[in-house]
Amino acid sequence: MSNYHIKHLEEYYQVYRKSVRNPEVFWEEIAEEHFLWRKKWNNVLSWDFSKPEVKWFEGAKLNITENCIDRHLYTRGDKTAIIFEPNDPKEKAEHISYKQLHEKVCKFSNVLKAQGVKKGDRVCIYLPMIPELAISVLACARIGAIHSVVFAGFSSTALATRINDCDCKMVITSDGSYRGAKTIDLKGIVDDALEECPGVETVLVAKRIKSDIKMKEGRDKWLQPLLDKADNVCVPEIMDAEDPLFILYTSGSTGKPKGMVHTTAGYMVYTAYTFKNVFQYKEEDVYWCTADIGWITGHSYIVYGPLANGATTVMFEGVPSYPDYGRFWDIVEKHKINQFYTAPTAIRALAKEGVGHVEAHDLSSLKVLGTVGEPINEEAWHWYDDNIGKKKSPIVDTWWQTETGGIMITPIPFATPTKPTYATLPFPGIQPALMDENGKEIKGNQVDGRLCIKFPWPSMARTIWGNHQRYRDTYFTAFENKYFTGDGALRDEVGYYRITGRVDDVIIVSGHNLGTAPIEDAINEHPAVAESAIVGFPHDVKGNALYGYVILKDTGESRNQDNLRKEINQIITEQIGPIAKLDKIQFTNGLPKTRSGKIMRRILRKIAHKDTSNLGDTSTLLNPEVVQDIMDNAL
Length: 635
Ligand code: PRX
Known about the structure:
By secondary structure, the chain is α/β, with parallel strands linked by helices. It folds into two domains: 9-319 and 394-489, ANL, N-terminal domain (Rossmann fold); 510-633, GMP Synthetase, Chain A, domain 3. The protein is built from 20 helices and 30 strands. Strand 14 and strand 15 form a beta hairpin. The radius of gyration is 24 Å and the shape is globular. The site of adenosine-5'-monophosphate-propyl ester (PRX) has 21 residues, from helix 11, strand 20, strand 24 and strand 25. It is an enzyme of class 6 (ligase). One of its GO terms (molecular function) is ATP binding. Residues 519-598 form the AMP-binding enzyme C-terminal domain. Residues 12-68 form the Acetyl-coenzyme A synthetase N-terminal domain.
């Protein structure tokens, strides 16, 4: 019997030891006992990080939607699979049972097929958090199409880049979306994007807003009439274990976004197993993750992980502040949420509003609380523990990444004693290593270094779409034979890990990964801008905010700096989205550079952090004089 459900610390250590000593037997047992396979694998694992090439459950055949839906039909057909909680609390929540989900996914799958989508085709999904989002994801998976969900807060330019990078032939969107008090013209954004995307043949449009929108003849089709005509049975496509399931874009330090490719069997096994243990999900529980399905957290822990366990998972369309800051707690009370998973930035924003909204609601259903996406500071951790969990619900601070597919370092509730700001212990199967700058592993406890993983796990991304070399260069060349996460971490006296943050040029703002390069490229498009550099600085709600240093072109004319700041943020909003706007913009005459012309971000970071006591040796810079000037005018 595999240890599918870990219940106490002893058991965790036992399971962990087994997972490391004999990973293949460990994962094979879990895969064998808990999933539906059309054919079993020939080989559990083959791997070579130098290529890199990783294959799990090679030779196996399956369809992930049979595991997430069909196999529950006999035992849980009438159980609620998805609760849809609309943006407006006055609108009724929708409960979709496993039977209904099956029918909806089958119909949607048949629509996709009728529109010419075939196994291996890429389909871009650009939808708000409405049921059609989860259903279209599952429909793609059912017919073997590769979904590429783009978060509906991204701009038309960002959307076009992602559609073209993986040659999507279809886009699924809606006539608009609700976000708090705002209504957003999603279809208009898609229309703008598609001016640059000649490969898109069809746009399916779900109806959410009652508005008149332009439909392009021959390309755009309303979804509902097609669904009405579709058959409610769709035989799932039988997939190979290593067939791609989806592409999801994430920012890098340089260059365009990376389309991380996740494959089928390993991803399913790992997300299901982590979901069960990290949230201690029990059959009658109602689980809510507040993320958007446009991010990996939503893929793995709103859709695939929960549904693979036959869970009830909540999809929330709105924002934590609408109609007021009590909305999250209102939903917890209304749906009697047992597991609640959110981001530190949301906790900080809500903590700022005081406990009035919290106390107005009955939160006694809560059993487990989770956080993800960025380091959680001690104050926010205690606020969450005291006021939301009432010190009775363990907090799982889960560390992982788009690339890892599933949770990697985390407490297991009721088993692992928690410690504020610590993600604690590696999940079974995960072998972390801390590395020094010379590429040597740092053994022992009470040490810090660069966080790597030295053995494959089932849900790791297999490549970057269309650019395997970049995958290798980004993750497998910094440290030989190891996956490099890009994060720094420390290990305390008992072996608990604390993630200290990115060690590259990725900045996490409100839990969103932002690369500096695309933002700088956007700023540089302003006709008055000669050059720019972005760094992060601490922000009490967002974790980090963006600080831009901008050199203007010498045009001889004087410009209003406040207007320029607005224009720069406007360009960023158009090119990337409002999440990437700068909080501070300092105009400067120069940027500190090395003799080879590289911007010394370390110095800029220190100035933005208002920590200029130890800037290091600046005398070797190409232009040491600019440092004082930047310091004198810092914001
Ligand atoms: O820096 C780490 C941070 O978020 C990065 C991954 O971002 P993304 O791919 O967008 O995925 C976010 C959701 C899984 C990591 O490299 N991060 C994520 N979780 C934590 C974290 N930092 C500290 N503590 C965490 N629990």
